[in-house]
Model the fold of this input.
Amino acid sequence: MSTTSCNKRMRIANKQVLQILTTQAHRRQYNRRFSTEFVESLPENVNFIIEPILVHEHCGGKSCEPHMRCFVYLPNKLDGTVDEMADSGFQIRIIDVDMNMFSCLPNAVDFSDSADESVGESDASTTAEL
Done:
C-alpha cells in the first residue's frame, strides 16, 4: 500500500491519544486544534474515528512542515452509555495532526478489507507508544 493511500484510511484515537495530539497541535501552533478543556470533557471509554482530509503546510499563514488535517467524529452527547452517545448523533470537529503521529494511529476497521488487514494487536501497541 502506498503512503498516499495509507494516509487516506480512517484511524481511531481514544481520549488519551487526543490529549497528546492536542498538546502537540498547541506546541506547534497548528491552525486547527482542540482546547484542553474540550478534550478533558470527552468520555474515557470511547474510540473516536479520525478521517484524514488533506495534507496541510501552513501555521498562522506561514509555511511549515506538512501535517494532516483531519475530521474527528464525536457524539453529540458526551456522557452516558456508549449506546446513548451513538444514538445522539455525531458532530465533526477538525484537528491538525503531525504526520508521524498520524501514521502511528491504528487504522479503523474497514469492512471492505480482508480480515487480516483489520485493527490488530500491532495497531493497539502503536497507540500505546503515543
